[in-house]
Specification:
It contains 11 helices and 16 strands. By secondary structure, the chain is α+β, with helices and mostly antiparallel strands. The strands form 5 sheets. The chain has a 5-stranded mixed sheet with strand order 2-8-7-5-6, with helices on both faces. The two termini are about 20 Å apart. The N terminus is likely disordered. The protein binds coenzyme A. Coenzyme A binds next to α3 and α8.
Length: about 375
Amino acid sequence: MSAAAELNEEADYPEVCSVSRVLGTGYNLPDHVVTNDYFASYLDTSAQWIRDRTGISERRWVEGDVPASELAEPAARDAIRRAGLQPEDIDGIIFATVTPDYIFPSSAVFLQARLGCHGGLAFDVNAVCSGFLYAIATADALIGKGIAKNILVIGCDIYSKIINKNDRSSCILFGDGAGALVLGANTAAESGGKDSGTQVVEARGVGVSGSGETLCGIYASELGADGRHTGILCVPSGTAAPVTPESIKTDAHYLTMDGREVFKLAVRKLAEINESIVVSQGFSLSQVDWFASHQANQRILSAMARSLGAPEEKMLSNVEKVGNTSAASVPILLAEAEEQGKIKSGDLVVLSAFGGGVTWGSMLLRW
Ligand SMILES: CC(C)(COP(=O)(O)OP(=O)(O)OC[C@H]1O[C@@H](n2cnc3c(N)ncnc32)[C@H](O)[C@@H]1OP(=O)(O)O)[C@@H](O)C(=O)NCCC(=O)NCCS
């Protein structure tokens, strides 16, 4: 339990600290819709099987060669505009992806060039489906250290280029997409009207709420990995397994997955990390307004809700329409939920993700 939470165990509203908060969101999906019927047209599967076992009805795939930075650009521009900023106000870009434009330079620098905001930090993060959680936690830490002020955090993946379209157990799951969020320094002056009692305790703007107040911003994050499970979800192409004419002939360079094993680990870990991040800050699960969890499978989300004792209406879901978009999943979900008027200012939100590695991450924030 954090020091802030320990100090306020008895309080109805725990005292929390926050160095950064969400200023704006955006997302972008390719136009091309791929329905379940498409897979049924050439694989031994059915639209109904896919719908029943995953909750997915359709996903979007790019057409032709689209670099990740190109797919991300409209999402980034929307997030910057909704933050009330200009591209030149962005002094950091963190780009979560496992499908970058090139091996290097990073997609972050390609996006920086597209946006025309040169000079700030820019790098990619590879933590597979947990990549966005790793990226936003890193952005929060960099803002806390005063290294950057307004960081554009991107989750963007184009799995249609790395899946084996003849593997019915994996190719049906994934969609392409991009989500973006601008994270800015949290100061009393900037954090809106709700946190009237907020103190600015450091020059960089670490806000601390008192009892009964609703300080907006990121309260806490937790990240983890267990490298004993590298084999259950993997794209085996790289220095350990160079792409050769033979590997191409046998499709060995595409994504491989032990779906059943991933499913079991994901349900257990997601329930565990959602509960621990909430309790660590002195809140109870019933105080959470929205759970924004990685969209892998509706059955995983439902199992998680049951395990947490949370009403399923609080589990944001768009997996039916977009499938699993990996690092883009959580930011697309957040941007859509905000656009639809679901997540509102002052709501208590838990973000969480689980993915290849295996990796996981969670975050508690006040929107
Ligand atoms: C992939 C997944 C949908 C498969 O569903 P499942 O209920 O676990 O199914 P199983 O893997 O147990 O397979 C059951 C049967 O369905 C078959 N099957 C797999 N995909 C199929 C498909 N698209 N259509 C029809 N049958 C399929 C399997 O071959 C298996 O057949 P068998 O019993 O004859 O061996 C599910 O395991 C899943 O979503 N796992 C998590 C994947 C994930 O989220 N990955 C990304 C994490 S970030």
